[in-house]
Amino acid sequence: MTEKTESTTTFAELGLGPSLLKAVADAGYQHPTPIQVNAIPLVMKGRDVIGLAQTGTGKTAAFTLPIVERLQGGPRRARCLVLAPTRELCMQVKESFSKYAKGSGLKVTEVYGGVALGPQERALRAGVDVVVATPGRLIDHLERQNVVFDDLEVLVLDEADRMLDMGFAPQINKIVAQLPKYRQTLLFSATMVAEVEALARKYLRKPVVVQMGLRTQAVDTVAHAVYPVPKDRKTALLVELLKKDGMDSVLVFTRTKHGADRVVRHLEKAGIEADAFHADKSQGQRTAALNAFRTGKTKVLVATDIAQRGLDIAGISHVINYDVPAQPEDYVHRIGRTGRAAATGDAFTFMAPDEIGTVRLIERVLGTPIPRISVPGYDFGTVAAE
């Protein structure tokens, strides 16, 4: 079953209470996105839901808002568990809960690897209502009996396809085996591949499918462009573009961690503040880089595909694919970092001669050509525009 609706719906019409409506208004949101319009009433009714939506559609609030509405005012026991693939996504979901749970009395704790167990253990043992966790670290706490889910009411599997891609299926199965059988289960995913379907059949009961857009559909608030450029001229072109007006908050994607570090070094030599974000950075370094980027202290974040999903940073003006992503879906996820929540943004892709075929594959899957922009002194030839 696929739900559709008009975008003129208000948050009040979705059945949210006064405190949540105030929290939503304080956050600056006036109208819910389509995924929120369709999912929130279903979640509040207790239905199991499969939410299929491209990035940047307001998916996180589609489950945090109704869960806060349902759970507020309850006792300090773990009644909701959100499983997410990365630390960054855990932090985003925790932030969403905290933003909407003001005044509700709900206590939310995030649990992920790369940091000490002690503070997380103390927080869990002190009593929580909502646990947001990566699968591996949650198992560590379950084995230490730092948290029990005997009273669990809602399980959320966020970015399910990404969790399965990262090999978390055994951990998910181990965790779910320790949860109450009768519960509400929500599954959100950008794609509905066979592995996700199997997971849904295993753990959801008569779910309603809420699908917004095709899995390869790019966010329609993003303007796309391809810049033909020789590989050895990409950094120079990047510097030139970053010095133009309007490049206020730019997320640059490279294929490798080494490449990200190299680009940052070149940008800093050119007088452009930039940070790298990839798996070789410590959690503290990644958090500091994100905070600097989010607050505008640093206007450029150079990242590997670890950042293509799960990061919700308001106001990203541009996404630049320094290296063309290998898969069309990776392109969609990367550019979904801008043009979020009805804002507009630009997505630029630097295309070297050996990347022409990959760009054409992306265009075939998207069903539309991407405009070429030729910059004098950088374009390697007219072959790119064929």
What does this structure look like?
There is one protein chain. With 386 residues, this protein is an alpha/beta fold. It has two domains: 201 residues, P-loop containing nucleotide triphosphate hydrolases (Rossmann fold, 3-Layer(aba) Sandwich), CATH 3.40.50; 164 residues, P-loop containing nucleotide triphosphate hydrolases (Rossmann fold), CATH 3.40.50. 37% of the residues lie in helices and 16% in strands. The protein contains 14 helices and 13 strands. A seven-stranded parallel beta sheet has the order 3-4-2-5-6-1-7, with helices on both faces. Strand 10, helix 12 and strand 11 form a beta-alpha-beta unit. Helix 3 packs across helix 4. The longest helix has 14 residues. The N terminus and C terminus are likely disordered.
Task: Give the helix/strand layout.
Elements: H1 18-26, H2 34-44, E1 49-53, H3 59-71, E2 80-83, H4 87-100, E3 108-111, H5 117-125, E4 130-133, H6 135-143, E5 154-157, H7 160-165, H8 169-176, E6 184-189, H9 194-203, E7 208-212, E8 222-228, H10 234-242, E9 250-253, H11 257-269, E10 274-277, H12 283-295, E11 300-303, E12 318-321, H13 328-335, E13 345-351, H14 356-366
Parallel strand pairs: 1-6, 1-7, 2-4, 2-5, 3-4, 5-6, 8-13, 9-11, 9-12, 10-11, 12-13
Helix pairs in contact: 2-3, 3-4, 6-8
